[in-house]
Amino acid sequence: MRGVSQQKIDKKILTVISVTTLINFMAGYNARLAVVGIPTIAHDLNADIWSMTWIIQGYMLGSTFVQLIVGRLSDLFGRVRMFNLGILIFTIGALASGISSVPYILALSRILQGLGGAFLMSLSVTILTDNIPSNMLGRWLGINQITWRAGAIIGLTMSGFIIDYLGWRWIFLSQIPIGLIALYWSIRSLKEIYKPAEKPKIDFQGFALFSVSITLLLISLTLTGYGYEIYSRELLITSLILFVLFVIWEIKTTSPALDLKIFKIWQFTGGIIAQLLYSIGFGASLTLLAIYLQSVKGFDPSITGILLTPYEVTFMIFGVIGGWLSDKIGFAPVTIMGLTLSSLGLYMFSRLSTSMTLIIGELIFGIGTGLFVSPNTSSIMTSVPPQRRGVASSLRTLSFNIGFILSLNLSILSMTYYIPYKIASQLITLGEALGSHSLNIAVELEKLDSAIKHSFLIQSIVMALGIPFSITRIKRSFHK
C-alpha cells in the first residue's frame, strides 16, 4: 500500500512539474528573445533610449501591477484557475507585441503580456509548493529552473537568427503556439487542491495606490533622463507619498492586497530584501551585455545571442546544484556563496576587455545566480503558513520585478551621466543618422563603453549588499 501511495505522489508531482516546466520554458524563451532584439527593435521603430527602456520594462511593469492582487485572487478563487487565465493573457500580449508598429504600442503590448506573466511566474511556484513536500521543494524548484534556462538558451540562440532572417516581430509571434499548447495542457492536467478559507474580497484601493505610485516613480526616472528635473522631483515626491499611504492602508484594512504582517517573519523578510538587492544587481545585466556586444563591439544579433549562452548554461547547471545543496545544508550558506560570486561576476563585466574576460565573467555570474535563486525562493515560500503562500509568492515576485525595473532605470541614468542621452540613443539603436551629426564615432563609442562598465560596477556593489541578509538568517537555516 505504501508503494502504491508513493507512486501516486510521484505521478502527481510529475504531472504538476510537466505543466510548470512548460510555462517556465515559455517565460525564459520570452525573456531572452527581447534582450537580443532590443537594439534592432528600437532602430526599426525609431525609438530613443528611454522609449527602449519602456519597451524592456513594460513586461515587468505589467507583472508588477498585478502582483498585488495575483496572490489574493489565487488565495480566494483558486491557483489553477488564475494560472490558466495568465497563460491566455500572456499569449494575447505576445500577439499584440508582434503586430505593434510604434514604440508606445509595443510598450503597452508588453505591459499586457506582463499582466499574464505575473500569474504564471507567481502561481507556478505556489502550485509547486502546494503539491511537493517541503523537504523536496528545493531540488524540484531547481529542476523547474532548468526549463526556464533551456527556454532562455533557445531564446538567446534563436532570437538572433529569427531577427536576421525573419524580422524582430517573429520573436513575439513565435511565442503564440507555445502559449496555446501550454494552456491546453494546463487545463487538461492540473487539479485544484487548495481550498479557499476566506470570502472573496479584493483590495482595489491598495492596488490603485501601489500601481499609481510605481508608475509615477518610473515616469519620474524617465523625466530625469530627459533633463526635466523639476517635474521629475514633483512626481517622485508624489510617488513616495502614495507609497506611504499604501502601507498605512494595508496595515489598517481588514482585507489587504498584501498581508504585511508576514514581514514579522525574519526568514521571509530577509529573503525578500536579499532578492530585491539581487534583482537590482541582476536586472539590467544581460541587456547591458547585449548593448555592449552589438553597439560597442559591432556583433550582429545572432552572434550576440551565442556569446551570452555560457551564462544561461551555467545557471541551468548550478540552479539544480543550488537546490540540492539547499535541501542538504540549508539555504543560508548557499545563498551567501551565490551572492558573492554574482557580485564578482558583475565586477568582471565592469572590467571587460577581451572575449575571455566576458566568458569567465559569465561563468562566475551564472554559478552565483544559479546558487542563489532556488535556495532563496525555497526559504521564502516555506517560511509562511500554507494559507499565505499565494501572498508570499506575489511578494517574492514583486520584489524581483521592482528591483529589475529599478535596475534598468538606474543603469540608463548611470550611462547618461557619462554620455548625453541623444547620442547614447543613436549609438545603442544603431541609428543611421550618426554621421549627419558629425560625431567622432570612435570617441563616442569609447564613452558608451565606459558608461556601461560604470553601470556594471554599481550593480556589483548593490548585489553584494544582499549578503548580510543571508548571513543574519544562517542560524535559522541550520535549525529549521
Describe the overall structure.
The protein is an all-alpha fold and 480 residues long. The chain has two domains: 423 residues, Growth Hormone, Chain: A (Up-down Bundle); 54 residues. Helices cover 82% and strands 0% of the residues. Helix 2 packs parallel to helix 4 and helix 11 packs antiparallel against helix 12. The longest helix is centred in the N-terminal third of the chain and has 43 residues. The radius of gyration is 22 Å and the shape is globular. The two termini are 31 Å apart. About 2% of the residues have low confidence.
Structural class label? mainly alpha
Choose one word for the global shape.
globular
Detail the poorly predicted runs.
Answer: 431-438
Taken as a percent bin, the fraction of beta residues is under 5%
Number of helices: 19
- Our Rg estimate from Cα atoms comes to 22 Å
Largest sheet: none
Mean pLDDT reading: 81
What fold name stands as the CATH topology of the largest domain? Answer: Growth Hormone, Chain: A
Write the CATH homologous superfamily of the largest domain: MFS general substrate transporter like domains
Helical fraction:
over 70%
CATH architectural arrangement of the largest domain: Up-down Bundle
Distance between the termini: 31 Å
CATH class of the largest domain: Mainly Alpha
Count of all domains: 2
Number of strands: 0
Oligomer classification: single chain
Secondary-structure element order, as H and E?
Answer: HHHHHHHHHHHHHHHHHHH
